[in-house]
Design brief:
This protein is mainly alpha-helical and about 240 residues long. It has helices at about 15-20, 25-40, 50-60, 60-75, 90-110, 115-140, 155-165, 170-180, 180-195, 205-210, 225-230, 230-244; strands at about 45-50, 80-85, 85-90. A hairpin with a 2-residue loop joins strand 2 and strand 3 (about 85-90).
Length: about 240
């Protein structure tokens, strides 16, 4: 039997918990159905499915489906592409495993010195992919301070504590160090209103996504502020600036 058509899913509980513990039960169940769908088609890494079919698969209406897709995307569970009438979901873990399988398959075909050299290069690629995979799994377990530069103000620690969504700290720290000073200042000015507009962390972008997308340049739509005037966080910032 082809390993891609096994009657069971090689689901690693530890990996699943690390990837999905931040999701709501509805989103986690919806993603599990996609994983089973991918597995039933030969462990594909991607599935392109009509919007109506996805609603039927998840047994929900369009608004509920869009909320689940947003939650999966914000928490970086999978890659999502939107097409006319279709939605494409890609499992990063399946893609990585399939890439490793292809490399191993090529490596096994090597019979002469030239192919032995190619095999060694393939093994290096496998190791790189595995290290990257381990980095994804262990980001939340690493307790080291990558940045120890007193010249960076505001510091990464200030950003990390204020953002208050602890995901992918080491890579965020490297990204913070690479930012320009004006960008760091703009981020800290933007965060109070952004955090106030996303009290539910599951709908707050992961910090790495926020930094990579330059989300501090985006407009904030805060219904709470629209109804009640300026937020308390924003008022405090204005008072602090006036007193300084």
């Amino acid at each position: 039997m082809n390993k891609k058509n096994l009657p069971y899913i090689d689901l690693y509980v530890g990996d699943w918990i690390k990837d999905c513990s931040i999701l709501s039960c509805e989103a986690e169940g919806a993603w599990l159905r996609i994983v089973m769908k991918l597995h039933s088609k030969g462990k594909q890494s991607s599935i392109k499915i009509p919007t109506k079919s996805l609603q039927n698969l998840w047994s929900m209406n369009e608004d509920q489906m869009n909320l689940i897709l947003k939650e999966l995307e914000l928490n970086e569970i999978c890659d999502i592409s939107y097409h006319t009438g279709f939605i494409e979901l890609t499992s990063r873990r399946f893609k990585k495993q399939n890439d490793i399988s292809v490399i191993r398959s090529k490596a096994r075909k090597g019979v002469n010195n030239k192919k032995k050299i190619e095999s060694n290069n393939n093994q290096k690629q496998i190791k790189t992919l595995q290290i990257t995979d381990n980095d994804i799994d262990n980001d939340n377990d690493i307790d080291i301070d990558i940045i120890n530069d007193n010249n960076i103000i505001p510091s990464f620690a200030e950003f990390w504590d204020f953002y208050d969504k602890k995901v992918n700290r080491p890579k965020c720290a490297i990204k913070w160090k690479a930012l320009k000073q004006k960008e760091r200042e703009s981020i800290m000015n933007h965060l109070p209103n952004y955090i106030d507009s996303t009290p539910d962390k599951s709908f707050r972008k992961n910090p790495m996504t926020y930094l990579n997308n330059k989300s501090w340049e985006d407009e904030i739509i805060n219904k709470k502020i629209e109804q009640n005037g300026l937020s308390e966080n924003y008022k405090q910032r204005i008072i602090s600036k006036l007193q300084s």
